[in-house]
Write a structure and sequence with these properties.
alpha/beta; 7-stranded mixed β-sheet; Glyas_Fos-R_dOase_dom; Glyas_Bleomycin-R_OHBP_Dase; VOC_core
């Protein structure tokens, strides 16, 4: 197996008012929710890579079973293979792989109960 994590795919956190907070960050810091960048390890790609920044409603269950108010999303190259290796290493895998037009997603828990989202992206 080559690389496991290739970059940060997203930063997600709970918020009292996600819409208002998003507007504040956009107005004062220029954050629009998506950071686009060039993947120097994939120079053949015509599409920019991206990192997502997104507040969630404070009562979201998306971070479950973690009780933490945040979740990190890491970009990976081969999600299926990586999850199999992590499971063999004793890492707790949460749920099943989900596939969308923008990539595949899988989840694990770290030793402190932080839910980590793994994303095999289709950039574009």
């Amino acid at each position: 197996m080559k690389k496991r994590v290739t970059g940060i795919g997203g930063i997600f956190f709970k918020s009292e008012d996600p819409k208002k907070l998003t507007e504040w960050y956009n107005t004062h810091l220029g954050i629009e929710g998506v950071f686009k960048w060039k993947d120097i390890d994939n120079t053949e790609s015509e599409h920019p890579a991206q990192t997502i920044w997104s507040p969630f409603k404070k009562d979201t269950t998306y971070f479950t079973p973690s009780e933490k108010p945040f979740m990190f999303n890491y970009r990976v190259e081969n999600l299926t293979e990586l999850l199999a290796v992590l499971k063999e290493e004793g890492v707790q895998v949460v749920g099943e792989i989900e596939t969308y037009p923008y990539g595949k997603f899988g989840w694990i828990l770290d030793p402190e109960g932080n839910k980590i989202e793994l994303w095999e992206p289709i950039d574009g």
